[in-house]
Sequence to fold (167 residues):
Amino acid sequence: MEFGSNTSDSETQSVDYTSDGNDPGTSSSEENEMIITCRFAPYQGEPLAEELQNNDVDEDESDMDGLTPKTLAARQDGTIPVDAWCRCEHYRKDELEGALEHRCCKEVVQASGKMVFDGSIEHIKCITEHTDYIALSNKAILLNVAPLLKNKDGRSYRRRGGVSENE
Fold:
């Protein structure tokens, strides 16, 4: 018995089977030949990976709360009126630092989840009225917890020069 394998550049493989006459029931003059042709196409039908032009955050990419950087900047500038986005009616511009903080607590998934989980959503309008909010926003606690927080890249947050603390 012989097995021959022929491959070409077009990814076609042929396997030849021939009998050498040593098998019982076959004569030496009789030759059986079987050719199997297969075409291999690895990863055929797989979706192509998206190519990223740069590693920066896309301007149209929304955060986990569904807000884009453009929307948050427009809120900070006052282009979008407060009545159009703050549903809890506890907006205080003097307590917000930067465009990322210009969002209503009803838009923050984790804040809404906390109020739903403990049932406080029934009797308070804003997360700032929650009993845990005062304890969690205590300056001494924030100073101890802040060094433990990491961004999505795994690096610790650092305070930028010239930026005041939220109090």
